[in-house]
Design brief:
The protein is mainly β. It has four helices and 64 strands. The radius of gyration is 27 Å and the shape is globular. 58% of the residues are buried.
Length: 817
Amino acid sequence: MASWIPIGPGPIINGQAEGIEAPEGKNPVSGCIVDIAPLLATRYYNGNANVIYAAAANGGVWKTTNAMASTPHWIPLTDFALPSLSLGSIAISPVRKKTIFAAAGRFSSCDFDGGWRFGIARSDDEGQTWTTLGVELSDQDIRRVLPTERSSGDVVLAAAGRFSSCDFDGGWRFGIARSDDEGQTWTTLGVELSDQDICRVLPTERSSGDVILAAASQGLYRSVDNGARFDPVTAGLRGIGVSDLVADPAIAERFYVAIEGIIYISNDFGEAWSDVSSEALRSQSSDRILLSVHNNGTGSHAVYAMVNRQGHLANVYRSVDQCRNWTVLGVPPEIFPGGAASLHGAIAADPGEKGIVYVAGDRQEKPPEGETENSNGAKDYSGNIFRFVDDKKGKWENLVMRGANHTSPHADSRRLVFDANGDLLYACDGGIFKLKAVSDHRLRQWVSINGNLSPTEAHSAAFDPVSELALSGNQDTGTSVQSLIKNVIWNEVISGDGADVAVDADQHVHVGTSIRYWGYPELEWFNRTIYDASNKMMEHAVLQLKIVSGPGAGKTLPGFDRNIQFYCPFALNRLEPRRMLIGTRYIYESTDYGDSLLNLGFIGSSVGDQLGNNPISYGAKNFDGTSNAGAFFVGAGTNLWHRSADGNAVVAVRFPGGRIRAVVMNRICATQVFVLDANNHVFASSDAGTTWIELTANLGILTKSARTMELINLGQGLDDTILVIGGEGGVWKMDHPATSGATWGPVASGLPRALIYDIRYNQEYDLLLAGTLGRGVWTLKDCIRRGAAKPFQFVTDRTPAERVPGIPTEPSRVASF
């Protein structure tokens, strides 16, 4: 059996960082890292700044043992070891440094999409092998896994939930769970906490027994019997909306909690609390306070409060006397220009100096009109990080661009932690970065430690047969194209969030060139760019998208239609790719490369299933061999819309399934169509929807969530085909799908258990291309017609793709479909 091959991106250079030089190229980025665990010293073992474990939003666990190298080498540890690659937390046991815990969850900025939430996994050999634990915790978003020193490291805690200040539907939430055998078995603690979002769980020890504090969406809870029962804490507290809970690192009985804009302190293991907010702090009316504590155990003590309101940083406060008095540190220049303080943002007290605190926001501000850079010296929407230094002047220091020798990491912070050498590590939606020489502004600079890290959320992928290159539209890391020689290193051609991509390689119309379609979400700067066979850009243009007939005539599509999805579905015609269909709650057709549009009418529901799917199939031959470029099928909600030929009406045909995710029409028979729905069911019709047969067979055993579909023609017979489906955990095929009793089986081995978002097939090269949400792009060559396809090797002598000129950079956003 043939094997899938990863082709990147790993990393993407010319990304949305700034001033960072690396051996692999400038400004390398990768994908969303939700958590990092550097190997820090405990009382049981020494730390090592070279060792870091990373949890990717949808790319599994990664490890490097040379993080201090100019190009760290990362190893994916869980591609085939875990049921899913969607993670929320990673942690190293404080007792045994070889024991690693990973927790499942959906925390991607791509509308929190992801694979199966399997619970907790543990490795006892530094990630070489894994055991899935705690089936009691499956189907949960586990926000934090916390191995402890209790019982020689056997006690582990887990907290479920997403973000207490955001309104996301994550299903039933178990609250807190505890394991007393390193995660082999789990006990759900405190039914009082079920169906709540837990933002923090903190265990501590006292002479009379263990205490566990849990910060939940409905208040602060406390257990004094190892979690058998959790009681709401009311002594001294008001309100229920907990945004953060922290422990004093040197005083076991002391805790701090922020509830509905008020800060409280407890000096008795959380039994009683005192309001310690100043009038100034109270007047901020905060909706999210993040806390951090410095205490090195030698009398150096400070508490910091990062006060956020309505998506922005309102103020930062510090107390050095157990919160009896607060000092207003003020705010640095705006660190949340994107207004994402409810999702992004981080604070970290310096572990060595009580007068230093670090804060990170979402992104940089846009430069003023007519200017090329903003007040920080940033020209792009890169990261935004400051620190406050309590010296004689007491001021905020910019830690990016002008404050870091004109360097800045990617935007959208997830975690700020210090490594074993005291350098600041920053995890974000673009990977992992490190700030070197933190305290010396003359030497301070950001470096990428992305190395070959490849957790790219490639929701859309395409192959350009003219230049023999792949390209992808990525959540958070723009639109990228394969680069020169090292085929896993790609170039970013459009920054921010990359929308869907497509390639017109019609060599009858434009010999020796291809037209690539890409842009920003919601059809912003939807662009067609012409390339020659060497990957050199010849010309480019933004699509006019002008409606010339039907509703909205005389307006542009964005100017008329308020139903454009974040990743708007569109498809090129398979016979005449100058033609295009675009789907919203209307269907639009273009016959001139997207400049003018015919509005074919309102269809009620949005095209797709609101998860970025593209259920449009456009152009095929009739079974007698004549061309029928006007034929199409479009899925919208539970309705399947069909036009049999140019000039005919668009009609809804009867469809027996649920919400439609993918549609593919037989290239040689315009009346044969295959449909995949959101219930994991597959249907086929050979008479344009008059009658249907179901092809689901054993698909539900193979995947919990099928997402994309392609049909491969082997010959000229109606059933001389292979139906291919990609989804959670792989890609599967059904040979001769019209044959009675046909079943699904793997196309090939070697594909990680990622969520497959896009499948494309090129017959000339016998090439399958898979875009995964979290593990980049993978290819399968000579998989169908072995020996009959055109030979080639990816990327040996091509010109690296450059940024598309004339398209302004835009920030990444949280995809919402």
